[in-house]
Amino acid sequence: MHFWFRLRVILRMNTLPAILNRATTHQISYQTDAANNYFNLTQQKAHRVTAIISYLLIILMGQIIGLPVLLWLIFTLFDFGNIDQLFALMAIVGLTIISINHNKIRTSKILALDLLCFLLLASPIIRRMTAVPIELFNYLAFIIPTTLFALFYTASLFLGYRQCFQKKIVAC
Description:
Blueprint: H1 2-13, H2 16-20, H3 25-56, E1 59-61, E2 66-68, H4 69-77, H5 84-100, H6 108-131, H7 140-171
Antiparallel strand pairs: 1-2
């Protein structure tokens, strides 16, 4: 699928006679790099959105029913006098920063903010896992979304790093 997408982007950018009339391969490789950057940007955004959706689909089981993380964060935010309130605030700040920086091009500063947001989002889950016995988290509604969140967010961080690094190489 990657090959067909890249080919479609390259053909959209150039017509076949224009490609054949090029004297140097540098122009063609530059356009291929532009297509790769566009592809990495869309793939990075898709991974980030998938990670956030899976984060919001994590179910924390209570004594009677399970509660999605978003509702748990909101309810815990207004539960005064509890240390979980601090972690809920950190996660909501992380979600806010992610939504603000969603469409920005990845620079080293924004990449550092993305890593910080990952830690902010992971902190309430880690706190919850250390507060109660680990056996209580052995259910698929917790394991699958948490794993997807960690994998897709890490992949989006990697793609953002690649985008930042390629941009610096092209600029040189």
